[in-house]
Amino acid sequence: MKNIAGILLALVASALPAVSHAASFDCAKAASFVEKAICSNATLSRLDDALSENYSSMRAANIGDGARKHLQASQKKWLAERNRCADEKCVASAYRKRIDEICEYPVVSGVHPGCISPDEPLSR
Asked: What does each C-alpha distance from 100 to 9, 24, 42, 47, 93 come to in angstroms?
């Protein structure tokens, strides 16, 4: 009977959802310290989700070609900076700063996309 209970417990535990996917990359392929930290820390994962959503919304908005190119270039530069972090506090700080930067891009015409706060739950 103990063996059956152990097997059932293992099956239930393997079926429970884990933090395994951040919005911007597949956690199964996480290689760096930063990527592994994002996948294992709920706060960092939420920050990654918010940044990814806000970045996508801003790229889709009418911000003009020059601003869009700048947004993409600055994102690549930011990723390199983020990847130099050696602890989770640095990663969280980098995300919060970048979220603010992305949300400040001006829109040429139309409605400015609403930015998701990293402190609010995402609707998926």
From this structure: 44, 17, 20, 12, 11
Q: Are 102 and 116 in contact (CB under 8 A)?
A: no
25: three-class secondary structure by DSSP: strand
pLDDT digits (tens, 9 = 90+) for 81-92: 999 999 999 999
> What is the per-residue pLDDT across 90-105, written as a single tens digit (0 to 9) for each?
999 999 999 999 988 8
In angstroms, rounded to a whole number, what is the distance separating the alpha carbons of residues 17 and 92?
23
CA distance 9 to 39: 24
What are the C-alpha distances in Å from 35 to residues 2, 23, 25, 110? 38, 12, 8, 35
Q: What is the pTM of this model?
A: 0.75
Q: Average of pLDDT values for 42-62?
A: 93
Helix axes 65-82, 88-103, angle to 10 degrees: 170
